[in-house]
Amino acid sequence: MRVLAYLLYHLFAKHLPRSYDFGPIGRISKKVRSFLGCRLIPQAPRSVFIERGADFGSGKNVRLEDCACIGENARFMGEGNVHIKQHAMMGPEVLIITSDHQMMEEGFKGYVSEDVVIGEYAWIGARVIILKGVAIGRHAIVAAGAVVTRDVPAFTVVGGCPAKVIKYRK
Fold first, then answer.
1. Whole-prediction pTM
2. Which of 16, 50, 63, 99 has a beta carbon 3.0–4.6 Å from 113's, enabling a disulfide?
């Protein structure tokens, strides 16, 4: 069943119109993507939002909570786990990288993987890159185009390359 869901998602549902395009067609597309996505992601409730073009591979390393959102053309890469907590949202083309080359003096030796956690009610802007081992705190906001290399504390706004604290939310 999982293989069939994988094929249907990646060959068909991933390419359906955005959820807000073409009225009822977009709403049906959203339901089809969510249905198949929940079959691929072992720990996903039915109330998740998966937008057009989202690529999370086989879904085995992804955990979604209620009302979690995977944005348009978002991509998860690597062998580490990605945990998106409840009501977290992301904009288009977010890239989450959970693995990196293990650097040695004489070259490279395999990969190093670490988990990424996105906290409750966090907002991730368009084209954000989140690197391995990062935890984004609850209610945090990551500005569009940021490269997140370190943990983001709760109730903060970060942006830039590398991401730095811009201000604290109340």
1. 0.92
2. 99
Dump pLDDT digits (tens) for 5-31.
999 999 999 999 999 888 999 999 999
Question: Is residue 101 annotated as part of the catalytic site, yes or no?
Answer: yes
Structure tokens at 93: 């083309």
Question: Can you tell me the distance from the alpha carbon of 101 to that of 114, in angstroms, rounded to the nearest whole number?
Answer: 12
Each residue of 58-117: pLDDT tens digit? 899 999 999 999 999 999 999 999 999 999 999 999 999 999 988 776 777 788 999 999
Measuring CA to CA, which residue among 11, 89, 101 is closest to residue 50? 89
Query: Is omega for the bond preceding 162 within 30 degrees of 0, making it cis?
Result: yes
**Residue 149: exposure state from Cβ atoms within 10 A (0-12, 13-18, ≥19):** middle
Dihedral angle sign, alpha carbons of residues 28, 29, 30, 31: positive
Query: From the candidates 10, 87, 101, 139, which is the catalytic residue?
Result: 101
Closest CA to 37 of 16, 58, 11, 20: 58
